[in-house]
Amino acid sequence: MKEISPEIFYVGVDDYETDLFESMWPLPEGVSYNAYIVKGKEKVAAIDTVKIPFVEEYLEKVEKVTSFDKIDYIILNHMEPDHTGSLLKLLEKAPQAKIYCSKKAVAMVKSLFNLEENVHGVEEAEELDLGDKKLIFYMDPLVHWPETMVTYEAESKTLFSSDAFGSFKGLKEGITDEEVDYHGYIDETIRYFSNIVSKYTKYVKKALDKLLPIEIKIIAPAHGLIWKKDVKHIVSLYQQLADMQGEKSILVLWGSMYGNTKLVIDAVVEGIEEAGLKVTILDVARDHLSYQIKETAKNQGIILGFPTYDGEEFPPVSFYLDMMRRKNIRNRIVGFFGSSLWSGRALKKAADKLKTLDWQIVEPLLEFRGKPAKELLSQAKELGKQVAQKVKEL
Ligand SMILES: Cc1cc2nc3c(=O)[nH]c(=O)nc-3n(C[C@H](O)[C@H](O)[C@H](O)COP(=O)(O)O)c2cc1C
Ligand SMILES: [Fe+2]
Ligand SMILES: [Fe+2]
């Protein structure tokens, strides 16, 4: 329990136990479920709760800040169970509290908790007076679910932003960017954005357009670091991510069953490095998809190397391509290389899938039979150089 601003308390918890977030995304450094208590002179509001396994720790923290009978409102910004899981347990302790959520969330509160009474669906920009403090609610649909809203506290100028601006990684080293160096959280912010939020980039942009004209001194998301010192930094990172602007660097994502495709990687990397760009290399079959998606969001240039398999791309690449579509990762510059033995064609099929996401294909697609010949290796180096060059020119 920590005060992030006068009479605004952090009562969230760290989760270092769950292996996979949403049963999909690895959590090597954990994740936090951020919840807050806002104490006005007259009224007290709890903002979000935590995932149910951590309810005891959460309630202990709440009780250190306020007695339960003083809680007037429970604000639910987003209905995903990582934030609403402890609602019923909190209501057992604070049955007088009125639930405030978006109008779209009202039906979800009924479906998930069978609650109808004492539930208020708020209007866009509706205000809730707590005395000296005032909460204002803004709808933030599809960041990350259709019912999501954010809550702004007007006196401290704190934006409780739900999943927006959030990241993976627990907060045991400190909860704000005043306490810890934010650089250690950036990659986990990009991974959170690209894995969880990026499908709805259009809505992230809409939300930014709506919220950024408001003066914001503190961003208090539902996961990860609370931003006080460098609010501008997280905002500009989010703008870049929402605009699908990667860094001027290259991801080489490769797979190979018998080592023929693998023999080409060094030449590709040599070409990229000669052009002066940094390169990240991931194995599509062994490095987790979560990091493949994150590195694709992070790098503007992508080079994919994989063999033909049953007339199509090597299967882990299919999963990756499908995720590019589902997570809506757009506007990359992409090159291809890979081995086949009989009729090939996997590279062309994969390239066609990416065209629909506005990925710019760098020709030629370097498909070769069996083991790469010397001539192929110099073409591969040229491919690396060309992709890097196009990224540099952006
Ligand atoms: C299960 C399997 C399916 C394959 N399907 C095709 C195919 O449909 N078309 C083709 O041209 N080659 C196909 N091949 C041949 C591989 O593309 C070829 O062996 C290639 O050199 C493997 O590259 P790698 O050493 O990088 O794994 C297949 C190989 C395997 C093992
Ligand atoms: Fe969510
Ligand atoms: Fe969440």
Automatic annotation (TrEMBL):
Q: Which Gene3D superfamilies match?
A: 3.40.50.360, Ribonuclease Z/Hydroxyacylglutathione hydrolase-like
Q: What is the designated name of this protein? A: FprA family A-type flavoprotein
What PANTHER family does the record tag this protein with?
ANAEROBIC NITRIC OXIDE REDUCTASE FLAVORUBREDOXIN
Positions of the Flavodoxin-like domain: 250-388
A single MF term (Gene Ontology): oxidoreductase activity
Record's SMART domains? Lactamase_B
